[in-house]
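Worked example 3 (structure in, sequence out).
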C-alpha cells in the first residue's frame, strides 16, 4: 500500500526552504532538497536515521516497512506510546511531517522481497539498510548494488550492548558503507539500547549526506 504525504499545516514550503538556505547555504540546501533517500526498515536504525535526514533537509524519503509499533520498540526507536498499534510507516510519516513539513514522503507498507526491492527504491540514489533479518539484509544489499542503476547502500552491523564507542566504525567498499562494530549481536546480557543504536543510525544518516554532497554531478 502506498501513501504519499505532503505538507498540510500553517507553515509554507517557502518558510522551510528559506530556513534551510539560511542554515546550510543555498548550494547545500538545494542539493539536499533535490535528493531522494530510501529507508529499508523503520526500527531503531531506520526511524532514527529518517529523523536525522528530515532535520537535515533531505527533499524526499522513501519509507518501507511492514511492521506495527510495539511496546518493546520504545526503548530505542523514535516512536511514542501513542504510536503503539500503528504501522511504523504511518507513525513515522506523521512524526517527520511535524519535524519538516516541506519534506516529501513516499510510504510503502510492504515486505521487501527480491521481486520488489529495486522497484521500491527506483528513485533513490542512496538507501539506508536498517532491517533485522540477516537474509533480508543480504537480499537488499545484493539486489541494490548489482542492479542496473548506480546506487549506494549504507548498512548497519554490530550495535548491541553499551559503551565501547571507539569500536563503532565506518567501513566503505565501493558503493557499500557499513557502520557499527561489526561483531556485537544481541544476546543474553547484550540488549539493543537507544544510545548505541542511535549512534549507528546517526552515523548512517551522516554517511548518506556525505555520499550526496560528494557524488559527481
Amino acid at each position: 500500500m502506498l501513501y504519499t504525504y505532503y505538507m498540510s499545516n500553517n507553515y509554507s514550503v517557502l518558510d522551510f526552504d528559506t530556513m534551510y538556505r539560511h542554515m546550510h547555504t543555498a548550494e547545500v540546501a538545494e542539493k539536499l532538497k533535490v535528493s531522494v533517500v530510501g529507508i529499508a526498515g523503520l526500527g531503531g536504525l531506520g526511524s532514527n536515521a529518517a529523523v536525522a535526514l528530515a532535520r537535515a533537509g533531505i527533499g524526499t524519503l522513501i519509507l518501507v516497512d511492514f511492521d506495527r509499533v510495539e511496546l518493546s520498540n520504545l526503548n530505542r526507536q523514535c516512536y511514542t506510546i501513542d504510536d503503539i498499534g500503528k504501522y511504523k510507516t504511518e507513525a513515522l510519516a506523521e512524526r517527520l511531517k511535524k519535524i519538516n513539513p516541506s519534506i516529501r514522503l513516499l510510504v510503502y507498507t510492504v515486505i521487501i522481497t527480491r521481486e520488489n526491492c529495486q522497484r521500491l527504491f527506483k528513485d533513490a540514489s542512496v538507501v539506508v539498510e536498517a532491517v533485522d533479518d540477516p537474509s533480508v539484509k543480504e537480499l537488499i544489499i545484493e539486489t541494490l548494488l548489482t542492479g542496473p542503476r548506480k546506487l549506494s547502500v549504507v548498512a548497519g552491523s554490530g550495535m548491541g550492548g553499551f559503551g565501547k564507542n571507539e569500536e563503532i566504525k565506518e567501513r566503505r567498499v565501493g558503493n557499500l558503507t557499513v557502520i557499527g562494530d561489526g561483531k556485537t549481536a544481541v544476546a543474553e546480557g547484550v540488549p539493543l539500547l537507544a544510545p548505541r543504536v542511535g549512534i549507528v543510525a546517526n552515523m548512517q544518516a551522516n554517511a548518506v549526506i556525505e555520499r550526496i554532497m560528494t557524488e559527481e554531478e
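Notes: The beta strands are 2-5, 36-40, 60-64, 104-108, 126-129, 152-156, 169-173, 176-180. Helices lie at 13-24, 26-33, 44-56, 88-99, 117-120, 134-145, 194-214.
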